[in-house]
Amino acid sequence: MDGAAPVVGRIGPETFAVASAAFASAQAVHDLARRISASLTRPFITAGYELVCSCSIGMTMFDGPPADAARLIEQADRALFHVQHGGEQSPAMYAPAAASTPGAGGNDPVSEHPRLAAQLRHALARRQFSLNLQPQLSLINGQIVGYEFLLRWISPELGGVAPTDFLPILEQTGGIREVGHWVLDNAAQMLAGLQREEAERAGTARQPDLHAAVNLSDAQLLDPRLSDVVRDIAARHAVPTARLVFEVSEHTLLRAGAAARQAVDALHACGARVAVEDFGATAHSLDCLAQFRPDQVKLDRGVVGAVSGTGDDTALRRLVAAAHDAGVPVTATRVETAAQLQALRACRCDVIQGYLLSQPFPARWIDDTQGVIAERARDLMP
């Protein structure tokens, strides 16, 4: 680039790049990144509701001969991974040492992609996947209403590999559909067992209204066979399809547009339920309610995380009110503090999920943890 003005381009569905030859120092790059972050995270009003966005920024520089653009983007992407992996929002500059630093589970997916992909091809057949469960508590009646089923991978060679490391590779290689079917099948099987146990414990033939929630990626949602798979799995385990909740991110729905609407309609037609994840993460959250008519929404973690004992919960209250106005119940995830619970209860949030109630635990622990979770649920109710 010969000019001094930065060039901005979109290089992915949710990724933008800024390039400039005008920076004299790393500090100048940091200053620009902070200004961008401050601008993007400033609350704004749309359709009468205040929304707050978040962003992560990775950076790189070169001071020699003209550098290959693809190489620079790769370096900035590695820096971005380290920001997102650590849960930080501050900009990060690429450094060769950091690029080789292992992530959670001992692997950086950028440099380890071929190795992880090779092992992932055999992980399902070798029974290396497992499920963790995290309970969901109704703030209306104080009952555990369901569990989210979370995929985990324990590799004999690599140890525990973080989902943020292996899920993108499963999506890129096409393995996510087969693994997703395995998750749904096992979740439905476990749900059937939980319902029978709860009915026996209560001394009634009527099974409780527990649900199993699983996540859907873009590829899974747009799989034309999905609704047939749901029907088959539900019938095999004698679980009503209405007890199966499919969580899809707001970004995925908006990005896929009409195709996503057709997929959601197909899930609804077979009796399953759909939850919009990350509700409040974009400026189009309210459009999701109108376009996709979800059965529930799950608040973006940034909305819940911003709430404290003395913090401003205006965005939270407006999002919950908007969902309720549309007749859609609201689940808050990553609830970790009593102050967050108090704010959620005050704005009439329906369901909570998070460490305040229980951290995710291996499925094999379910029999030993149900009593503890029930007691904790009672403690959290007024």
UniProtKB/TrEMBL annotation:
Residues 113-374 form the EAL domain. InterPro entries: Cyclic-di-GMP_PDE-like (IPR050706), EAL_dom (IPR001633), EAL_sf (IPR035919), GGDEF_dom (IPR000160), Nucleotide_cyclase (IPR029787), Rev_trsase/Diguanyl_cyclase (IPR043128). SUPFAM superfamilies: EAL domain-like (SSF141868), Nucleotide cyclase (SSF55073). One of its GO terms (molecular function) is cyclic-guanylate-specific phosphodiesterase activity. Residues 1-96 form the GGDEF domain. This is Putative diguanylate phosphodiesterase (Signal transduction EAL domain). It comes from blood disease bacterium R229.
